[in-house]
Specification:
The complex is a heterodimer of chains A (500) and B (315). Chain A is of the alpha/beta class and 500 residues long. Chain A has 17 helices and 22 strands. The longest helix of chain B is centred in the last third of the chain and has 27 residues, at 207-233. In chain B, 48% of the residues are buried. The chains are: A alpha/beta (500), B mainly alpha (315). The A-B interface holds A 300, 302, 321-323, 325-327, 331-332, 334, 339-346, 350, 353-355, 357-358, 361, 364-366, 368, 408 and B 183-186, 188-189, 191-192, 195-196, 198-206, 262-263.
């Protein structure tokens, strides 16, 4: 079959970095072609060339048999290429209709917006999805999955024949992912071609017709689905055999460190009780929106609790705000690294030092040398790929940014570490490093709590797992006691019997 | 190995300093008076009054905030100091301390309303503009308080080792501020809060405390400036400091501090304040009409921000 899109010999360099080197990539009509690789492998650069944001230094772009000469952002949209970025680009307090037709609103003769027509056009775009999304609804009132679908609808309304999806499931879980997959299937049947970027190899296996793997800016291999096993894919991505995807260690349960009893906050969580032990990793699973993040935020003092007690090393503690939590030895790595974990305009050093400045001042003056020593040691051990720790965080890749957030908490000695989605958007190699670092914290005697939407990860790394459904803990079990399917059923609220 | 010097980059990164030097050289050529020690001291002395406030304002703007009430704080703390000295025969030191306390107090009120009251800095300090001015009028009944002791008048008019005292105070303020910004938690958190307040809060830092502190700082610098102004004029007036917030904010912005917070420096503010001073002084020397001067000053502010944007785009 003739290729719809053919990118050949694409090279692109940035000052000091060769981002892409002689990469070939093609896409057939109605095909889903997955693009896989570690952070910094060049996937984003390739997509940005396709979107018209970057211009390739070398190489050709052939669309429907014709070579494209000018490749600006507008031209590419005109050519029917729609990109759905990882960070959604919707305006929260405008309606769905306004978002979809932003800049293309139908006008009345007087030049004002023709609202009835706009809503009708939007309804027509949304209809095929058969979802409960209303054109008048504000985007902010939609969940992450539906927002994603609004983005897809927007691209389709621009007559996109090629859709690029960058980590579309990163913010979704469970049934939302299923929804999205259904829609992807339907789009393919209608002849839409999709380039799909994801770190979740299971998804890639499930969806892709063909898979292309990039490593260090070069194409390693393109193969049809089923011609590669997971292990082979990982090998191609990392360029070496990863001994184990989930490093194991024999945990020893120590004293109870953090005990939460009857934690309740209206609309967020109800009667949540659990104990985190020294030397162990406690995993929290559940659907997005089940309240996992909010439970942790309530413990951390970011949200105000209505009821409940928190004990640290057996003693009741009061946490009214995040400051109280940190001074008493509880650290939280937030879910949204850019909005909540980093100061993007500051360098690696300043970001990582943020949690420890209060520990290293004498008469109010910072002991810069001591701080530098602590932070340097940590940053080095984290393997952050950067020319210098004076590099601004905004210039780092997603995975390296996440490592900076981790470093920030590792430099401060806490009794309890809460990690909310620590490996989101991070490549396989870096994930293993993060698991090891978390295990090291546990070995040191800390209690580690990890929230994750990736079931295999939680099931393999945690010593205990708690399942959250609609703000309640519906199941607690030890590693190996349940399988993934059973856990999924609890997450969906299909199991009745609630445990204390 | 000889490294090639990238002149373009140097110009872009130091735009304001280069503009400052060019203007100084041009003025030195055009006016024989400009480059005399006397005139230079004069520029520094004039600059110091709003320059000191600009130092405090740099903290506020670095956090992403703004304080419009500096002129009113200046006026009220000024008349309090004058009133204590004239009406109650208070010693200079106590009167000055009280004025600074008043400045700090008004800053504290601003800060608490912004942090605990969760009201936008623009609104809170806009309210404080009128409140401060009103309090000043109540206290003075609208009449100036004038005629201070010769000791007090030295504060604005005296010299130490040939350098005007206001200039010394200004430079000491700059040095202290530089130290705070670079070597204390308050300073580092000031930058961090402007960069991403949410992150700082989630890192377990008492954001409200540090955010309030920057408004106290600008209150203190406003009061400090009021002492120099009263001393120079030998009078504390209810209308003192009106419109100062514009020159102060202009100095900070020309100095490269981003109004959205997180980026900027105290050295930049020093240059920004001096640049305004030099231009005012130069235009006066050249006999340019004061009406026209306003146009130039406005253009300067916009020009400085464009320069800043150019620097950003090269990244």
């Amino acid at each position: 079959m003739e290729s719809l899109l053919k990118m050949s010999g694409i090279s692109k360099s940035f000052p000091g970095v060769r981002a892409l080197k002689d990469v070939d990539f093609d896409l057939k009509k109605g095909e889903l072609h997955a693009l896989v690789g570690e952070n910094g492998a060049g996937k984003s650069t390739l997509i940005k060339i396709l979107s018209g944001l970057y211009k390739a230094d070398e190489g050709t772009l052939v669309l429907r048999g014709e070579e494209l000469k000018t490749t600006g952002l507008r031209e590419m949209i005109g050519h029917g290429i729609g990109i759905i970025y990882q960070e959604l680009n919707l305006i929260p307090y405008l309606s769905v209709a306004e978002n979809i037709f932003l800049g293309r609103e139908p006008r009345t003769k007087l030049g004002t917006i023709d609202w009835p027509k706009l809503y009708k056009m939007t309804q027509a775009v949304l209809d095929p999805f058969q979802l409960n999304i209303k054109p008048r609804q504000k985007v902010a009132s939609l969940g992450a999955a539906y927002q994603q679908i609004v983005e897809i609808a927007k691209a389709l309304s621009l007559n996109a024949e090629i859709l690029v999806m960058d980590e579309p499931t990163a913010a979704l879980a469970g049934f939302e992912v299923e929804r999205l997959f259904e829609i992807i299937g339907r789009l393919k049947k209608e002849g839409v071609s999709i380039i799909y970027i994801s770190h979740r190899l299971d998804e890639v296996h499930h969806l892709a017709d063909r898979i292309t793997i990039l490593r260090d800016g070069e194409k390693v291999v393109t193969k049809a689905r089923g011609e590669m096993t997971n292990d082979e894919m990982i090998k191609h991505m990392v360029g070496r055999v990863l001994e184990e995807q989930y490093p194991q260690y024999d945990s020893v349960r120590g004293e109870p460190v953090l005990e939460v009893k009857g934690l309740t906050k209206a609309g967020v969580c109800e009667d949540v009780s659990f104990t985190a032990y020294a030397g162990e990793i406690l995993g929290f699973v559940g659907l997005v929106g089940a309240g996992r993040t909010e439970i942790m935020q309530t413990i951390y003092g970011y949200l105000k609790k209505d009821q409940g007690e928190i004990f640290l090393h057996g003693k009741p503690i009061k946490i009214k705000n995040c400051r109280d939590a940190v001074t008493q030895g509880v650290g939280l790595l937030p879910e949204e690294r850019k909005q909540q974990g980093l100061v993007l305009g500051m360098n690696i050093f300043d970001n990582a030092a943020l949690t420890v400045l209060d520990l290293y001042s004498k008469f109010g003056v910072l002991q810069k040398r001591k701080i530098a020593h602590e932070v340097n040691t940590m940053v080095e051990s984290m393997n952050i790929r950067t020319p210098s720790i004076r590099q601004l965080v905004m210039n780092l890749s997603g995975g390296n940014q996440q490592k900076v957030v981790l470093a920030k908490w590792f430099v401060r000695q806490c009794d309890v570490y809460i990690f909310d989605e620590p490996t989101r958007g991070i490549d396989v190699g870096a994930k293993v490093e993060i698991y090891r670092l978390m295990q090291n914290l546990a070995k040191r005697g800390a209690a580690v709590i990890m929230i994750s939407s990736e079931l295999p990860e939680v099931m393999n790394i945690s010593d205990q797992v708690a399942v959250v459904f609609e703000g309640k803990l519906v199941k607690k079990f030890k590693k190996g006691e349940l399988n993934e399917e059973e856990v999924m059923q609890y997450s969906l609220g299909l199991h009745e019997g609630r445990e204390a | 190995m000889a490294t090639k010097i990238d002149y373009k980059q140097i110009i872009k990164n130091n735009g304001v300093i280069i503009a400052f030097l060019i203007i100084c050289i041009a003025l030195a050529i055009m006016s024989p008076v400009f480059f005399t020690l006397n005139n230079i001291m004069n520029i520094f002395r004039q600059t110091s009054i709003y320059g000191i406030i600009a130092v405090g304002m740099t903290f506020v703007i670095l956090t992403g905030g703004i304080d419009l009430s500096v002129g009113s704080i200046l006026a009220f703390s000024g008349v309090i100091c004058a009133g204590l000295m004239k009406r109650h025969d208070a010693p200079i030191f106590l009167a000055a301390l009280a004025a600074i306390g008043v400045g700090a107090g008004m800053g504290l009120v601003n800060g608490l309303l912004i942090t605990l009251g969760k009201i936008a800095p623009f609104v809170v300090t806009l309210g404080m503009v009128t409140i401060g001015r009103g309090l000043t009028l109540i206290y003075t009944n609208g009449y100036p308080i004038s005629g201070f002791s010769s000791e007090f008048r030295k504060l604005g008019g005296g010299y130490v080792a040939g350098i005007p005292i206001p200039v010394i105070i200004f430079l000491i303020t700059v040095i202290i501020a530089w130290f705070i910004l670079n070597h204390t938690r308050l300073g580092r958190y000031t930058y961090a809060i402007g960069g991403n307040e949410e992150t700082v809060k989630l890192s377990g830092i008492n954001v409200n405390f540090f955010k309030t502190a920057v408004y106290v700082i600008v209150g203190i610098t406003s009061a400090l400036s009021s002492l120099i102004l009263s001393s120079r004029l030998n009078s504390a007036e209810a209308v003192a400091g009106q419109g100062y917030e514009l020159d102060v904010i202009a100095a900070v912005v020309i100095g490269g501090t981003s109004l959205t917070g997180g980026r900027g420096s105290i050295l930049g503010t020093l240059i920004g304040a001096l640049l305004i001073g030099v231009i005012n002084n130069g235009m006066n020397l050249l006999g340019i009409s004061p009406y026209f001067q306003q146009v130039v000053k406005g253009a300067l502010i916009i020009g400085a921000v464009i320069l800043d944007r150019l620097r950003d785009d090269t990244k």
